[in-house]
Amino acid sequence: MSTAGKKGVEPAEAEDVTQLLVEWSHGDATALNRLLPLVYDELHGLASAYMRRERADHTLQPTAL
């Protein structure tokens, strides 16, 4: 998903995420296991960006968010 110099989710990935959310909402428990790796990098990147704006001595890490 997001990497340095790249913004947002690719359209194909967004469609995959949407489809997996639909499957999960219809009771497919395995859809969650396929969904998490798709969204983890994006969420971690967003958390990292927010944490860079925090004071230097904070102890919270992006993964904790």
Which features does this protein show?
single chain; mainly alpha; 2 helices; elongated
Description:
With 65 residues, the chain is mainly α. The chain contains two helices and no strands. Helix 1 (11-25) crosses helix 2. The chain is elongated and about 45 Å long. The two termini are 18 Å apart.
Give the helix/strand layout.
Layout: H1 11-25, H2 29-52
Helix pairs in contact: 1-2
What Rg is obtained from the alpha carbons, in whole angstroms? 14 Å
Q: Structural class from helices and strands?
A: mainly alpha
Residues in helix, %: 55-70%
Q: Report the portion of residues in β strands.
A: under 5%
Number of helices: 2
Helix and strand string, N-terminal first? HH
Largest sheet: none
The rough form would be described as elongated
**Could you give the distance between the termini?**
18 Å
Average of pLDDT: 81
Note poorly predicted spans: 1-5
Number of domains: 1
- In total, the number of strands is 0
